[in-house]
Amino acid sequence: MDHNASHDIIIIGRNIAGLGAAYALGMAGYSVLIIGPETRLYGGFQLAPNGFSAMETLGLRQGIDAGALTVNAIQLKSLERAETLAEISYDDTLPYAGISRQHILECFLAALKNLPVTMIDSSLKALHLGHGSAQNRLLLETGDIISAPLVIGADGPAGICRAAITGYQPEQAATDHLAMRAEILASALANSFSNPVCQLWLGRGSHFVCYPFTHQGQLLVNAVYCMKRGATSSSTSAAIQQIFSRHPVLSSFADDNIVWQETDLPDCESLPVWQRGGLTLIGDAAHQMPPHLAQGAGQVFEDIACLSNCLKQAPVEQALRDMARIRSHDVTAIMQKARQSGSVMRLDGLSARLRNNFIKIAGGEFVEDWLRSVWYGPKE
After folding, report:
1. Is 74-96+174-266+347-376 CATH 3.10.450.10?
2. How far apart are CA 334 and CA 245, in angstroms?
3. CB neighbour burial string for 24-33, b if at least 16 within 10 angstroms, e if fewer
């Protein structure tokens, strides 16, 4: 079937970025069609002050707060020596929390209920960008072809929309680093991991992050162990269990019942251009953030808040251009800082010991100053 969409704009991707963009557009009075299969998300996010600020802009702070578990401190620790190197403390004036990814998704779904937003449970199979006055044409897995003047691509870094902007589909090759992720009942771990604290354990060529969050009334711990691929001859799951079993603090993470999921840590990049013809990227499709500044959710929220602000000042076509211009500039700086943080976390040997000694001497104030420029922008 070949037909024109009766909506002002089509969004590809039924995830946080896609639903958030639909919310911003729906609140501005535009009708939206979202194309994508229903999504369920695993694990948690760390949400920093800039993420909460973006939610405030969107008028969704109350819903987000209802599922957020406030983190009182971030502790940087030595994985090798099992000692605290530095600590950053927070209070109500500087919100920081662990939050379920699924809760965030459900907040956006609830917010869309009374807006002119329709969803199709299908995937995009092909996208042909129009030229001049010609419309974009979308081929769905159902066989339907939809024509639309404006499309937002929120289908992730390996999606068709990003490929339509760059002109190529990147190969899904194995990367140099990987992450082992687990969502663990807090009751299965030592009591200290139920405390409202994010712990970053810095090792030699590896690091481990864990923090609590709640979902459906359960207290959970989001755990991520990052390491270089091939660093051990054992299977990855066996290797981290062996590391934890010998550790005086982290031994409860060696439980055989914990299921670890292996994911790549790609060499991420933010595209300098987010638009081509009537297509605009948003979220991970435009910028897949490295997980070294806890900005995976925060930067998506900032995209959505920026779009919302732009829609208050201009019609949708101009608002999308403005959002793409503003955010492509801002995200580039955050991406560079995330890469730098990752390089520091991956230090090995003597460099790793020097890093830990420096953090111990410089203290939490130095680390907090580094993070504040991400949350509030550079000092003037």
Report:
1. no
2. 36
3. bbbbbebbbb
